[in-house]
Write a structure and sequence with these properties.
This protein is mostly helical and 274 residues long. The protein is built from twelve helices and six strands.
């Protein structure tokens, strides 16, 4: 059959056409993108930072021992979950100023604890978080206020609790201690909870940071932006290495001149006004 096809191609070269479809895999597409070297280096450092913080939280969650420590066998079992590709001992030895490995002859096991410097930094961080609880409460209120239902799944807050500056026990120290603002309710799924905002706030109680920037920018004598253009637009920059088309900047400027709904405005009131 193969010989017949080849002979037919030589006899009738114009009656056959071979179509070769080029396929681009996701890895090739990612590799072909314009990358920012500074951002790539930052992400590599950030990945290690997340792993170090996860191990530190595991060590500090064992307060029964003084100082808090964790066995290397237990940490090795969690290597896959913590994305420790080279194993737990590798990353521990990579940061000797944070982790200290020692051998306990009584238990015939190797343990890991935080160094004195790392413990002192952790203690200062805890003091800073506790001192900024009013700001944390305001930040959480603003986050709930931006939701149309004034509520969020508790698991969503757990994913960004560190970025929001919430303490480890924010359920007790923030939510339970502020019943006039927050309330935990059962979710639609079993064993899930929803955090609701129960406090009443007057209109225009919150102001977006971009609005304050517009006021400051308009009051400047050397303001380079037109007062009418700055009404809805906001300051932005393009990442280095981004490939811009000829009309991209014009489209962005046109888009920024459109009215928009603020993060703290009520959608129903906006429709009634329009």
């Amino acid at each position: 059959m193969r010989t017949y096809i080849i002979k037919s191609l030589f006899k009738h070269p114009f009656t056959f056409s071979i179509t070769i479809r080029s396929q681009t895999t996701s890895a090739q597409y990612v590799a072909s993108r314009a990358r920012d070297a500074t951002f790539e280096k930052l992400m590599d450092k950030y990945k290690n930072f997340v792993k170090v913080i996860a191990i530190q939280d595991l060590i500090l969650s064992n307060p029964n021992k003084t100082p808090p420590c964790i066995s290397l066998d237990f940490l090795s079992k969690l290597s896959q979950k913590l994305h420790l590709n080279r194993g737990a001992p590798s990353i521990l030895r990579k940061y000797p100023h944070i982790f200290h490995i020692f051998y306990d002859p009584a238990k015939s096991q190797a343990f890991c604890r935080l160094t004195d410097t790392a413990l002192e930094i952790s203690r200062k961080e805890e003091e800073a978080v506790n001192a900024s609880l009013p700001l944390v409460v305001d930040r959480l209120v603003r986050l709930l206020f931006m939701s149309t239902s004034k509520s969020l799944p508790l698991r969503a807050v757990f994913k960004v609790w560190r970025e929001l500056g919430l303490p480890d026990d924010f359920e007790d120290s923030v939510i339970v201690k502020n019943p006039n603002l927050f309330r935990l309710c059962d979710g639609n799924e079993p064993r899930t909870h929803v955090l609701k905002l129960v406090g009443e706030f007057p209109d225009n109680h919150f102001t977006a940071a971009v609005e304050n920037w517009r006021v400051t920018e308009c009051c400047r004598e050397d303001c380079s932006v037109d007062r009418m253009d700055i009404r809805y637009s906001f300051k932005h920059v393009y990442p280095p290495g981004m490939r811009l088309s000829k009309t991209f900047r014009a489209k962005v400027k046109e888009w920024q001149s459109l009215p928009y709904l603020g993060p703290y405005e009520d959608l129903m009131e906006k429709k009634k006004k329009t």
